[in-house]
Every structure is written in structure tokens, then in C-alpha cells.
Specification:
The chain is α+β, with helices and mostly antiparallel strands. The protein has helices at 33-37, 53-65, 67-72, 86-96, 111-116, 159-167, and strands spanning 12-19, 24-32, 41-47, 77-82, 103-106, 119-122, 128-131, 134-139, 142-148.
Length: 168
């Protein structure tokens, strides 16, 4: 399992972005985790699935609402990761109004989740292997803090907890 001081796994995520006004879209585009995190401070949070109740009602909105506070705390980017495809993450980004605030990154084959050891097996619920719910502060590709939730909980991976860690 990934720990404080470890580098993020050398994996590739996918991102689907819409271009407003044109009706066109860009992507899905590959995002090399090592390159995208190099030299940056990133507030990264992951969750079991797009459009799921807690994720849509609490987790993503908290990060969107605290975007300016994260910037003021020195965070360059906020990343949301989920084991969904890039098209679903793009539609969820539109629904959650994350444009310019939170990068919605798809871990479609759970490669990042498996490489970090932060997986959640929801096969019995028809959802397969997913990501645990967690947040982490990452500086120049290395984990500075990590907040992993107990199964079914939403207590430590919220925006407020990670923001306090970014300010420290």
C-alpha cells in the first residue's frame, strides 16, 4: 500500500474535457501521472464511483466549493480519481460543474488504484473492483499526507480535512 513519502505510481489516467461554446470535446486524453504531478502540489481525492450518492452530494462538491481556498494554500491542482471511463468522468464533470476547478481523471482499469493498494472490491454489488475513498496531498509526485476512509464512511477524505493539511 502507498505510504507517506512514496512516489505516486507510474500509471496513466484518462481525461475527457469539453470545449464550451463549440459543442465539441477533447479526448479522452492520456495523463501521465509522473509528468502531470512533477513540480506541483496536488490535492488528490479518489472515490468508488461517478454519480454515486455520497460522491456526488458531498465529496466532489466540497472540493469544488473550496477551490479558491486550496489555491490560497499553495495547491496547484485538484484531482478527482474514480474507476470509471473518461466519458463517464467527463459527463460527471459537467454535472458537478468542475470545469477549471477539479480535474476529473478516469482510472478505467483500476491501474492506479491497484498500484497504490487502495482498492475496494464491490463485485458483490455488481460494481467490480473500485477505488477506496481517500484523499492525499501530493508534492512533486510524492505523498505528503493520506486520509483513507473506513468502508462506507465519509469522515476524513473530505475537502476540509485535506485543506487543513495543505495549510499546515
Amino acid at each position: 500500500m502507498i505510504n507517506i513519502g512514496d512516489k505516486l505510481p507510474a500509471t496513466t489516467l484518462m481525461e475527457y474535457s469539453e470545449v464550451e461554446g463549440e459543442g465539441c470535446s477533447i479526448g479522452p486524453n492520456a495523463v501521465d501521472v509522473a509528468q502531470a504531478s512533477a513540480g506541483k502540489t496536488i490535492a488528490l481525492f479518489a472515490l468508488p464511483g461517478a454519480f454515486t450518492p455520497t460522491c456526488s452530494a458531498k465529496h466532489v462538491p466540497g472540493y469544488v466549493e473550496n477551490f479558491e481556498a486550496f489555491k490560497a494554500a499553495g495547491v496547484d491542482e485538484i484531482w478527482c480519481l474514480s474507476v470509471n471511463d473518461a466519458f463517464v468522468m467527463g459527463a460527471w464533470a459537467r454535472d458537478q460543474k468542475t470545469e477549471g476547478k477539479v480535474r476529473m481523471l478516469a482510472d478505467g482499469s483500476a491501474d492506479f488504484a491497484k498500484a497504490t493498494g487502495l482498492t475496494l472490491d464491490l463485485t458483490a454489488r455488481g460494481m467490480g473492483l473500485r477505488s477506496d475513498r481517500y484523499s492525499m496531498l501530493v508534492k512533486d509526485g510524492k505523498v505528503v499526507s493520506i486520509n483513507r476512509e473506513a468502508p462506507g464512511k465519509f469522515e476524513v477524505s473530505n475537502a476540509e480535512t485535506l485543506l487543513a493539511q495543505a495549510k499546515a
